[in-house]
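[step 3/7] fold_predict: job queued, chain A
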Amino acid sequence: MSEHRKKRVAILISGRGSNMVSVIEAAKAADYPAEIVLVLSNRPDAAGLARAAEAGIPTQAIDHKTFESRESFDAALDTALREAGTELVCLAGFMRIFSAGFVEAWAGRMINIHPSLLPLFRGAQTHEQALAAGVRLHGCTVHYVVPELDAGPIIAQAAVPVLAGDDADSLAARVIVQEHRLYPKALALVASGRAPLEGGRVAFATGQGTEGALHSL
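[step 4/7] structure written:
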């Protein structure tokens, strides 16, 4: 196996998939260390499926509503990922909580982007949470997925200022610009082996510093 072979990546979405689009665009570069082999959604009507198909990427919908349990849905998801030869999984607005068994099966090979500077503001409505807390910096985080929600080891972060007069929408608009820049860079770190998960932490390559792992506006 060539050291420079591109890692096979599946992107999971539930909606329009704006972060998915940024990763697909980045992966078009010849020197990008990952290729997108599947875009999969739990919602057959997800707008991102059409966008992925337009880019020539195989798509699949597995409707979670047709399964009796979280575990049976996760099993179908796992089968689809393995059939596509998936090596890394990117969550891009995938609005499902996984069973612990699924997370364990993909430990160290599944990443997510979250719209806050974790460990601050886990869960939903992160921009409202940031405004309520009065923080001066907000942003986004790419992290490995662990069973505890939004608690996985951090791969990369990007920060934006919170400005006077901001509301949740204006803050979200500033953050998503950084999400679209950060996620492709973080995936490249993981796919190239420069940010492996070791002992519950991200083990950056010696001398790498924060290059590629920290961005600010």
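[step 5/7] annotate
The beta strands are 7-13, 34-41, 59-61, 88-91, 110-114, 137-144, 154-161, 197-198, 201-202, 214-216.
The mean pLDDT is 93.
exit 0
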